[in-house]
Each structure stands twice: as C-alpha cells, then as structure tokens.
Structure to design on (740 residues):
DNA sequence: CGGAGTTACTGTACCGGTCAAGAAAAAGAA
DNA sequence: TTCTTTTTCTTGACCGGTACAGTAACTCCG
C-alpha cells in the first residue's frame, strides 16, 4: 500500500445508518422514513420505493429493535420460564414437547421465544430481559423468577401451576387421571401399591401425608388422586419421592429402594413415563417381570410409553394442546393489555383444564398369587 | 360507594414509576437513581439505601429493559437459529441436547436464550428482535434469516455450517467420522452399501453425485467421507435422501425403499441414529435381522444408540461440547465487539473442529454369504 | 365556487434509560 | 495553609425510534 494513500481512514466503519441518515439523504423528515418501514399506507408508493432504495444502499437493516421496543412498548418476544436448570428441563421430553407446541403456536404471531435462564450473579433474565409476556411452566423450584415477572406486571400464563388471582392458567386434570390409575390397580386386586413422585426440593425418601403440603400443584393433585381411592379401599399407600434429576436413573434407584422393602409392593404408580422406565429397569435388575410380578403405571403417555416392553399403562395428557392453549392464552392477554393502554393485567383471566385419560396397556395385571 | 367519594379516580392505575419519579421523591437527580441500580460504587451506601427503599415503595422493579437496551446497546439475550420449523428442530434429540448445552454455558453470563421462530407475515424475529448475538445451528433450509442476522452485523457463531469469512464457527469432523464408518463396513466385506442422508430441500429419492452440491456443510462432508473409501475400493455407493420430517418414520420408509431393491444392500450408513432406528424397523418389517442380514451404522451416538437392540454401531460426536464451545465463542465475540466500541464484527474469528470417533457395537457384521 | 374530506408529509414531544464531563464538598498531602 | 485528590452528585446530550397533532395540497360534490 503506498504511504500517500490514507486508506486507514477508510477502514473505520461508517457510522451505523439511522432513520435520520436516510431522511437527510432523501430529503424528507425522519418520520416519513419511519412510516416507509412501519406504516406503508402513510406515504406514496413511489416515495416509499425511493426511501427503501436509499436505505438499502446505506446498509440500513430496519428499525432498531431496541429503540422500537422502547418507543412502542413491544419487544417481539415472550419468555418461557421452565426450571432453574434449563438443561434439566430440556432433557425432559414432555417439557420439550410443550415448548415445541408453544413455539409453533406463537411463531405466526411474529414473536420469538425466550428461554429464561436462572441468570448470573447480577443479571436476572426474568427481571432484565425485555419481553411482552411470559409462560410459567411447572417444575420450578426457585420462585423468585416468578416474583420478578409478576412485579413487572407482565402478562403471564401459568401452566401446571396454581395461578395467582387474576392470572390465566392452563392445567390438566391431574387429579382425575391419577384417580383412574389408582382405581385401575385396585380393581386388579393390588393391595401393596407404591407411589413414586417428584416433589419440591426433595431428595429420595419415604413421605407421609404431612409432606404433601410442600408439593407444587401437579405433584399435590396427582398424589391426592392416587391416594384417595386407595384410602377409600383401606389400602395404605407407600409414597416415595425422588429428586429432579435424570428421571430414568432416579426411577431405577427408587425402584430398587421399593423392591427391597418388605412386604414388596406389587404395583408402582409413577409420576412420569420416564420414571416408569426406570422402574422397569429396577424390576429387570431384580429379576422381576412386568406385569406378572410387578405392575407399573406411568403418567403423560409420551413416546416412551409405547417404546417400553411391555407397553406402558399410563395416564394420557395432551401436551401439544397444553402448549397451544398456553400460547393462545398468552397472546390474548398481551393483546388485551395492549388494547387497554396500561400495562395493567386486566380482563377476565381464563382457566383451562384439559382432561386426562387412563390408557391401559401391557404393564398392569393382577398381582401375583401369594 | 357514596357519590361524594370520587373513588373512581383511584382505580386508574398509578403511572408506572421511572427513575425520574423516584428521583423527585428522594430529591436527587435521575442519574443518581440510575447509579443506585447500575453502579452502586458511584454513590454513598446510605443514599443508595434510601433510594432503593423509595423505589421499592413505588413498586419500581428495576431499569426498564427496553430503555436500557437502547441506551447501553445491550439486550441481555442471544438468539439461536435452529430451523425454519422450531417444532421440527425440537423433536430432534441431538438439537435439543445442543441447545441445552448452550443454555447451560450461556446462563451464568446472565443472558437468556431466544429461539428464533420463522416469524409471521410482517415480523421476522431474526430482523426485529433485539439481541446481542446469535448462534446459527445447522439444518436450516431458509437462509434468509441468516441474511438478516448478518446484515445486522451481529456477532454470530456458526455451528455445523461453513462459516462465511470473518465469522467464528464450531464444527465436528464429519468427514473423518464418515470415512471411518464406511471403511469399517468395507473391511467387514460389504460391497452393497447404501447411504441414507438428509439433504436440503430434498424429498425421498436416489441421488447421484451431481446432487451433492446442493447439500449443506454437514451432509456434504459426511457423504464425501462415506463415499471416498468406497470409491477407492471400487464399490459404487447407493445414496438416497430423505426429507426433514420425523427421522424414525422417514428412516423406516427409506429402509423399505432400500430393502426392496435388487441387489439388496447388505449395509446402510445413516445420517443419524434416529434414521438408523427407522432402518431397524424396516429391517424388522422385512423379516431381516440386524446385523446378520443387514448391517446398520448411525451417526451422533445419541442416547438412542444404546437403546436399540442390537446396540448401534455409530459415529460419536460430543454435542454437549459443541454447545458449550459455541456459547463460549459467541460470548467472546460479543465481548470483543463491545470492547472495540463499534458493532464491527472484528477480531480473529476462531474455527473449532471437534473430533469424531467410530463406536463399533452390535449392529454391524460381515455380510451374509451369498 | 366554496366547504368537507382525503392524501401526503412535517414538527415536536416523548419512550426510559446511560454516558461523559463537570461542580461542590470532603479528605489527604505537601 | 494551600494545593491536589477523591468522593459524591448533577447537567446536558444522546440512544433510535414512534405517536399525535398539525399543515398544505388535492379531490369530491352539490
């Protein structure tokens, strides 16, 4: 490069183009350029063409999202709060299916999906990331994130959660489904029935009913559904809890724990199909056959249920519908809040409860004769 | 309510508190209130206490994220571009594992993860959502989203992609892994080898080498790796393509298609473990045993590989490491861009290539004697 | 031909913060 | 005591848009 050529200057990046840059170049007001992008009906087609051409030439991409978010009060995304460990949530097939359904439903509205992480030391996405609303999904241990979302007065839809007053929610009928599962086992003649559930902040262990109070919505409703018909039949349930870890490994471990007990349970009601899969392994480890020597019932009716041998008797829920409805509900709340001007979480909150259904397959049978 | 009490006024929601509101109440400047939240070392501890107390009393949650994003040029989230159908991507276990690893790594930096949907008619998240950077993951048919991200001059890390000049990337050694898989089959004595791959915009069908040009990075590298040792050994590969649908169903379908051919392939190299699982089914449907009558090789070494019976011979890649490295690389680029002031995508881009490894399990054996 | 109604564009205020430089008071050094 | 230095707070400009209320010209209609 010749020393006389001051090319260095040239490498300095041109200042980023803004509406004003374009306006000056075209000789119109900034507002007109804004309209060219955001409200095409506000100016003549030919001027718009001219503006867009100049914008393109200047490398202008479109209105700055952050600025637009500030001015319009719209961020263009919605948050999804899964659990404090996103990784953990994403290894849960059911949770992923839910997110997937939400994404599919929210996509056409032009919004992106922001997965809220637990954040670092000083930054908390639930408090510090711009969004138009949020979906709070179950299995959250740390409720502080929910607290931030609420304080921000964001539109929120709660899923698999007791919604606070004034908030919309989408739930499934855990109670009815669990009842059906337990009744099924009772009618087969089982009397030694164990319940393997997850529970807030819990490690492995046997629970008594006093502990149920520490449960979140889903756990509580299912345990209630499982135990009620048992108690009515004079059968004392054995409730064990496992942590929020890898459900299959944990299910196996809890299965071992159960199968060592005496009297040995003849049936296990599981919080999820994945846990049931773990119990299958424990049974296999112990040389017990399902369902001849051990009946197993799952929950969710995920893909896994039919991959297992024998196919799993389980309680079906429609996760995709749950996701779609949650997304719809959230969009509805957002639009309503927007229409009302204020950020006020207004309007009549809607509570949806989806039905569940017992699906009897090959993993349940009468208990072995004593 | 008595008519004399003008309570109606009261129901109007108090205007949302801002820094100014608090400043006025405390009797300091707006900037000081800002510092109380964002730069605690800039004011005395006691004044800060007082400010925070008033803020709390006014229901102030913290600096408005959108405003802060505009002023600081930091959004607090990073985008992840998976495929034009998020749902499809989320049903892919490998993709989910990747996202999960990214989330885990990015979380502590205080950023959230925004899944970019394909958007609606007029809003395109890749263009219209504020973010600090983005990760572009493979399996994208529609590259316009990438175009928007690039035009925005965002920090981007490409994964399983040929990165454009100047961009960092994280890839795996698809070529070496595929070579090892093919060589393994050849050394077992196979001569009728089929390749079942996905490919851009492709429907089911047999391909000839001219079509390879339409492939994206991963497909191209793998096909190259599979075919090279075969051609060197004088074996003509049969390459078939399947669409981006449900991989297991599609694998089954492509398996049927292959097994009907004459001469019938004695081995199939699959683009993924999931496709291999589909081929297992097709083999089972056709009454063929793996590996006695059909050898199958997968790719990824996902969970599935060991769930199959027999366990799947496959090429292992470390998806979690890929995700972590991508996240690290992105954060590095973001910090660098920030340090350099301009949005310029500067600094030396880094290209990481992770190694792959053939894992021989039970799904491969010598071809049946003719 | 005059007033009502459009169409096409402009001007100003505001969204809610942060940055950088400066001023006043308090502390430390010569 | 006087001259730095530090601490603490303030001022004014700016981030890049959008809303809303004009204004001027142009069309429609009796």
């Amino acid at each position: 490069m010749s020393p006389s050529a001051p090319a260095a200057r040239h490498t300095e990046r041109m200042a980023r183009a803004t509406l004003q840059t374009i306006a000056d170049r075209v000789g119109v007001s900034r507002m007109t350029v804004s309209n060219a992008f955001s409200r095409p009906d506000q100016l003549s087609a030919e001027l718009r063409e001219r503006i867009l051409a100049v914008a393109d030439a200047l490398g202008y991409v479109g209105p700055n999202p952050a600025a637009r978010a500030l001015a319009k009060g719209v961020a263009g995304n919605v948050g999804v709060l899964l659990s404090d460990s996103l990784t953990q949530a994403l290894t849960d097939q059911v949770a992923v299916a839910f997110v997937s359904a939400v994404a599919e439903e929210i996509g056409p509205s032009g919004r992106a999906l922001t997965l809220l992480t637990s954040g670092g030391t000083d930054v908390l996405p639930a408090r510090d990331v711009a969004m138009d609303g949020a979906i709070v999904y179950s299995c959250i241990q740390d409720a502080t994130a929910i607290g931030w979302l609420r304080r921000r007065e964001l539109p929120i839809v709660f899923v698999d959660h007791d919604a606070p007053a004034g908030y919309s929610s989408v739930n499934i009928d855990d109670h009815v489904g669990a009842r059906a599962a337990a009744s099924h086992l009772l009618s087969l003649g089982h009397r030694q029935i164990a319940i393997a559930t997850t529970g807030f902040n819990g490690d492995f262990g046997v629970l008594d009913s006093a502990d149920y109070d520490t449960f979140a919505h889903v756990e509580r409703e299912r345990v209630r559904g499982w135990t009620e018909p048992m108690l009515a039949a004079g059968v004392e349930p054995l409730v064990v809890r496992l942590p929020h870890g890898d459900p299959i490994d944990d299910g196996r471990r809890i299965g071992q724990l159960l199968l060592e007990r005496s009297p040995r349970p003849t049936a296990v009601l599981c919080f999820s199909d994945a846990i049931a899969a773990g119990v299958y392994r424990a049974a296999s480890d112990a040389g017990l056959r399902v369902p001849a020597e051990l009946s197993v019932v799952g929950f969710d009716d995920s893909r896994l249920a039919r991959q297992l041998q024998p196919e799993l008797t389980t309680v079906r829920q429609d996760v995709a519908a749950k996701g779609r409805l949650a997304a719809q509900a959230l969009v509805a709340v957002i639009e309503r809040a927007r229409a009302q001007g204020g950020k006020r979480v207004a309007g009549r909150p809607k509570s949806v409860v989806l039905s569940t259904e017992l699906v009897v397959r090959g993993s349940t049978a009468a208990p072995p004769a004593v």
Residues 319-339 of chain A form the longest helix (21 residues). The longest strand of chain A covers residues 193-198.
